[in-house]
Design brief:
alpha/beta, Rossmann fold, five-stranded parallel β-sheet, two-stranded antiparallel ribbon, 7 strands, globular
């Protein structure tokens, strides 16, 4: 990806944080910290990496994505809307409102959403099955899933790691949003993953690490994964929870699920705008 495209997508990621902010403010709920940490991963996937669009959403040879950390649905919906699957203003106006299809976890009644998710630990095992099926059908599709690091305490995740390594699923790429925070504290306090790289590698995976808040590093990691066809790939995306929201949000566990008040809202908007200005001047 050239420098101008990196800048364009980096600015897009900041703009989409504003969409998330408006969704959460209007609805009165949402997991904003994880939304902000995972945004560059989703933007890189949908605007640089995956073969998926509103035009080919029913093509069995498309790429497939599973948002395993379904509580970060706001960022997922915002990216899908910007990709053209549905209207952004409708999303903002109706998210989590009575009768809306845009509910608080991924809903496969929404265009572009492959599966319902939210109960943590399900995304990787389902993605393993999808990757196996595509390989059996000799499809060119690649399968992607994004998990949270707190989610790794679920045993089904490790069954998924074991199965994917056993079947050498080179068409599978998983991402862990490694922001080190979950609802009840730091991941190391709740269930340590300090040797995550070596743990997953021992299951027969190709393991990469990247700055998950960098479009260029995530894009490079995804491209590198495509060159490994005899192993599944895990990208450990090292991120900051609340990234882009400034001092009021970043690396603060209290923002796992929080609705900004007026003062916080203004500070977050200012931080996003300042970051956008920096990107535009790079």
């Amino acid at each position: 990806m050239n420098r101008e495209r990196v800048k364009e997508l980096s600015i897009k990621a900041m703009d989409l944080r504003k969409v998330v902010l408006e969704m959460i403010r209007k609805s009165g709920g949402g997991h904003i910290g994880g939304d902000f940490s995972v945004m560059e991963t989703l933007v890189a996937l949908y605007f640089d990496v995956m073969n998926i669009s509103p035009e080919n959403k029913d093509d069995p040879d498309r790429d497939y994505f599973v948002m395993s950390k379904g509580h970060s649905v706001e960022s997922y919906y915002a990216v899908l809307a910007d990709k053209g699957f549905f209207d952004t203003q409708e999303l903002i106006d109706t998210f989590s409102q009575f009768g809306s299809k845009f509910i608080g976890h991924p809903n496969n009644e929404v265009d572009g959403v492959e599966m319902n998710s939210g109960s943590l630990g399900h995304g990787l095992p389902v993605a393993v099955g999808m990757a196996l099926a595509c390989r059996m059908d000799k499809r060119p599709s690649r399968i992607y899933t994004v998990m949270g690091d707190g989610e790794l305490a679920e045993g089904s995740v490790w069954e998924g790691f074991m199965a994917a390594g056993h079947y050498k699923l080179g068409n599978l790429c998983a991402v862990v949003d490694r922001n080190h925070l979950q609802i009840s504290g730091t991941t190391e306090e709740v269930m340590t993953h300090e040797n995550l790289h070596q743990q997953v590698e021992s299951f027969g995976w190709n393991v990469l690490e990247a700055n998950g808040n960098s479009i260029s590093e995530m894009s490079e990691a995804f491209q590198s994964a495509m060159n490994v066809d005899d192993k599944p790939t895990l990208i450990i995306a090292n991120t900051i929870k609340g990234f882009g929201g400034g001092d009021v949000m970043e690396n603060n566990v209290g923002w796992h699920h929080h609705v900004p008040n007026d003062e916080e809202y203004e500070k977050i908007v200012k931080a996003i705008d300042e970051r956008k200005e920096e990107l535009e001047n790079e």
